[in-house]
Amino acid sequence: MPFTPPTENYSGKVFPISIGEGDKAVSFGGENVLPFHGFEGEVPNKPLIALEIQDVPPADWPASVQEQYKDVSGDPVTWAKHCQDTLNARAIALRLVGTHPDGANRSVDDAVKTVKDVLDAISVPLIILGSNHVEKDSTVLVAVAQAAAGKPSIIGKAQEANYKTIAAAAMANNHKLIAMSELDINLSKQLNILIGQMGFAKENLITDPMASALGYGLEYTYSVMERIRLAALTQNDDTMQPPMMGDVGMYVWKTKETQAAEADLPEWGTLAERGVAWEAVTATALMVSGAELLIMRHPKAVEAVDKLIGEMEG
Amino acid sequence: MALTGVEIFKLLPKTNCKKCGFPTCLAFAMKLAQRQASLDQCPDVSEEAKAKLGEASAPPIRPITLGAGDKAVKMGEETVLFRHEKKFVNPCAIALEIKDTEDASAQEAKIKAVVESEINRVGQDLRVDAIVISNDSGDAGKLEALAKLVAEKAPNTASIVNTSDSAAGAAALKAFAGKKPMLYGANASNLEAMANAAKEAGASLGVKGNGLEEVSDLTEKVKALGVEDIVIDSGATKAGEMIRDNTFVRRAALKKSFKPLGYPVINFATREDSMLETLVASVSIAKYASVVVVSSVEKWKTLALFTLRQNIYTDPQVPMQVEQKVYDIGEPAKNAPLMITTNFSLTYFIVSGEVENSKVSAKLAVMDCEGLSVLTAWAAGKFTASKIAQFIKESGVENDLDHKELIIPGYVAILSGAIEDKLEGWTVTVGPREANALPAFLKQKAAA
User: Fold this and answer.
1) What is the pLDDT of residues A180-238, one digit of tens each?
2) HEC secondary structure over chain B
3) Which residue, A147, B76, B351, B410, has most beta carbons within 10 Å?
4) Does any domain span residue A34?
5) What is the pairing mode between strands B230-233 and B204-208?
């Protein structure tokens, strides 16, 4: 019985996203097959990894990641330049976590200044993330979208409770928009439809179906991503065709596995490698299930994932 | 090729005798087509029909056991391409490669690492499942010595003998007599001798080809030689090739009923760079390998791989549950707040994550509600005042606290009065509806 490769042809394709200028421009998405299935279709872009920085020092990150940025994380501009120039990040994700009312509660003006300063200092594309406080984000993200006018960026996250103002500001200032819903393919579809009804072009959307860390619900994100991608490809459903994002570092670096000392849990092995592996394996699983944009924290985890992506091509 | 119910029906006795347990031969045929019945349930089926049907009714990916005893590894039997469709059946085995060129102390250290690899995570015992002994030296004596060492030091671990020299393989396999080892390394030039060696030793046979076309040809030949327990390696080395070939194998077996590839797959993820090896192995685990071979098993690495495997092989239709008990988050003192929620794993992960974010140490009582979330469990009558009261009483948590205040999820605020009635001396406080409001709630409470 002769073997014929059982390839699949799909009717749909993922929208490509391009952002940034000149030789710093980056693209992701655009494929018409499942992740890393270049053997049966078009995969024009590799997944994009953005290094995460914050508007305030990362006091709540575990020591092993804080350590990586100890000389630069006191100031977001220095931190951003370090990621761009020393770590060769292709994109940077600035999380305005300091604006959260339960945290430093930084003002909208402070956030605007940070965003402008960082944008002036770097030439790679910027992803601007709020603090995930729905009310505060709806003012902060609107103001920073305006402040970043002229430098098209990726803004997020718009959620069901605050998408209207954020999507309008992103649209008016020519930014891409991240739409986040909580681990449910239908909620994700619905939010994309609602944002589309405002006149926001679906080609400028990025879907965040909510990441989970390895061992902490990863299988839910994994399957929601696979189902979204299958809907995009097999049903040619354009509300499911934006590329997907995995906000990896944020979920990974609060798990016990990235923090427990080896002395307390010798059966878990060395902490330094364990943390890096936790972030890199989570990122790998999300890429295999469909994420094209990953937001990560530890340079060594990024390096490992980059090497893996290098192996995926042939 | 798989037969339809009607095609199967034509081969049955058509007596509607009901001995198979189904009302008619046609009903039985339909069940056979869906692989929900087995042909041996029909006592009157002809030999000719058996031969035809046996082939067609065999599972699309052959079940094979590696190793013996309670640590034996099952492979194959998969039925879907995506885990949301149906549970992936037999979790990918993780195997450590030991070469016969390594010095004795390194070999012993690796064997010890495998033997001591077992950990328990969310109620499951997880371990490095197998040892691959590789004949890199080309010396039959060295391979045999290593086989004996492994058999002595890791008697319960499944073994894979990796050599292209059938005589060396046969000698090494003797160390694992009766333990269903695998002989890996059959190829176009040694096929017959390797098949005979495997058959004699009761071993499964690992067939390595240069691409799937060659593998398909080799498995047909091996089968004709009388060996059916086959594990296949397409020769893929890069992660991208593994995704491609493993996907083709799974699709060919399930969607095309292509028998020559209806076998479990083995991938070699071995790399100099241990972190990269971890990621390549992760790709194998997610994408259809039944055995993934690694070159080292540091504890951080196996913890990550075991956890990924557990995540991927979880049943998507059964909500994942955490154990019912009172969990400590941080280091709760006697005055720490006590909260209650249900044991749906996602509920638990989100609630405990937000409590951690609050930096307020607390006790979280997680009640068995069959893996339902708070609102669903309440609606289903599993998260009720009397059950909550009983759980809190029986948990004995009051001995660890200097107060009797229970915080309940905002969605079940309606239960607060009833719980106070049933839990004498306790005060019930209604917490936030959504977990993301917990940090503010707990901080405010701690400050009060």
Assistant:
1) 998 899 999 999 999 999 999 999 999 999 999 999 889 999 999 999 999 999 999 99
2) CCCCHHHHHHHCCCCCCCCCCCCCHHHHHHHHHCCCCCHHHCCCCCHHHHHHHHHHHCCCCCCEEECCHHHCEEECCCCCCCCCCCCCCCCCEEEEEEECCCCHHHHHHHHHHHHCCCEEECCEEECCCEEEEECCCCCHHHHHHHHHHHHHHCCCCEEEEECCCHHHHHHHHHHHCCCCCEEEEECCCCHHHHHHHHHHHCCEEEEECCCHHHHHHHHHHHHHCCCCCEEEECCCCCHHHHHHHHHHHHHHHHHCCCHHHCCCEEEECCCCCHHHHHHHHHHHHHCCCCEEEECCCCHHHHHHHHHHHHHHCCCCCCCCECCCEEEEECCCCCCCCEEEEECEHHHHHHHHHHHHHHCCCEEEEEECCCCCCHHHHHHCCCCCHHHHHHHHHHHCHHHHCCCCEEEECHHHHHHHHHHHHHCCCCEEEECCCCHHHHHHHHHHHHHC
3) B351
4) no
5) parallel
Q: Is the ipTM of this complex over 0.85?
A: yes
Q: Rounded to a whole number, what is the distance in Å from the CA of B162 to chain A's nearest CA?
A: 25
Structural domain total, chain A: 1
Asked whether residue A81 carries a pLDDT value surpassing 90, the answer given is yes
Measured between beta carbons, the chain B residues lying within 8 angstroms of A304 are 273, 275-276, 278-279
Tens-place pLDDT, residues B258-296: 999 999 999 999 999 999 999 999 999 999 999 999 999
Average pLDDT over residues B418-426: 93
A9 touches B at CB < 8 Å: no
Using pLDDT thresholds of 50, 70 and 90, give the confidence band for residue B56. low
CATH code of the domain covering residue A279: 3.20.20.20
**Interface contact B1, partner A, CB < 8 A:** no
Contact B248 A6 (CB under 8 A): yes
Which chain A residue shows the shortest CA-CA distance from B250?
Answer: A6
Instruction: Write out chain A residues lying below 8 Å of B300, CB-based.
Output: 268-271, 273-274, 277
Residue B34: other Cβ atoms inside 10 A: 9
pLDDT (0 to 100) of residue A174:
97
Domains and CATH numbers, chain B: 5-57 (1.10.15.40), 64-312 (3.20.20.20), 325-447 (3.40.50.11600)
The reply to whether residue B243 touches residue A37, judged by beta carbons under 8 angstroms, is yes
User: Which letter does DSSP use for residue A83 in this model?
Assistant: I
B241 contacts on A by Cβ (under 8 Å): 314
Is residue A106 assigned to a domain?
A: yes
| B211-232 pLDDT tens trace | 999 999 999 999 999 999 999 9
- Distance in Å, alpha carbon of B425 to nearest chain A alpha carbon: 33
> For A271, which residue in chain B has the nearest alpha carbon?
B300
- Is A40 part of a structural domain of the chain? no
Between chain A and chain B, the number of residue pairs with CB atoms below 8 A apart is: 169
- Domain limits for position A55: 47-311
Distances in Å between the Cα of B246 and the Cα atoms of A186, B230, B271, B286 are 30, 15, 19, 10
A19 assigned to some structural domain: no
H or E segment and range at residue A158: strand A154-158
Q: Is B300 on the interface with A (CB under 8 A)?
A: yes
Q: Which of residues 211-250 of A touch B (CB under 8 A)?
A: 212, 214-220, 222-223, 226-227, 230
Handedness of CA A83, A84, A87, A89 (dihedral sign): positive
Chain A from 186 to 205: CB within 8 A of any B CB:
none
Tokens 């070939």 correspond to what residue? B245
Query: How large a percentage of chain A has pLDDT more than 90?
Result: 94
The answer on pLDDT for A133 being more than 60 is yes
pTM of the model as a whole? 0.88
